[in-house]
Amino acid sequence: MRNILISTTLLLAAALSATAAHALDASETLVVVTPLASRTETASGQPITLPQKNVQVLVSSYEIAPGATLPVHKHPFPRYAYVEGGTLQVTNVETGKSTTYKSGDFIIEMIGQWHQATNVGADPVKLLVIDQVEEGTKNTVLRQ
Questions:
Q1: pLDDT confidence tier of residue 49, bands split at 50, 70 and 90
Q2: How far is residue 17's CA from residue 11's CA, in Å, rounded to a whole number?
Q3: Three-state SS across 30-79?
Q4: Residue/partner pairs of 5-11 with CB below 8 Å, 24 or more apart
Q5: How far is CA 3 from its chain centroid?
Q6: Handedness of CA 116, 106, 41, 135 (dihedral sign)
């Protein structure tokens, strides 16, 4: 399982580090690869570090209604999100800095810092979320 995760991560990194590339599938049909992100830091400038044991990948879809605000929370492990639709404003409540993401953006969320997100648009925000956690743990801690 760990070898599969490492191989998948390396393939993803290779795909993201290249410029738009063309390839052929098995039937020689053109396949276009468009990199979406290549980063070594989170949205708040932290280095990206992975869990050191028993890594588990969790993939979820989120739909956030217009005007909705998620509770203040933090992530102990890496979380990545691709914005499939809508406009999301993420605010680091520790620094007050806000960043707005729109359809097509890729978010590398801050680790261990309190933040919250608000749908600031007229349409639902749709996210594809990928977490890398220690097996059996959750990646969202709500502020009490």
A1: confident
A2: 10
A3: EEEECCCCCCCECCCCCECCCCCCCEEEEEEEEEECCCCECCCEECCCCE
A4: 5/55, 5/57
A5: 22
A6: positive
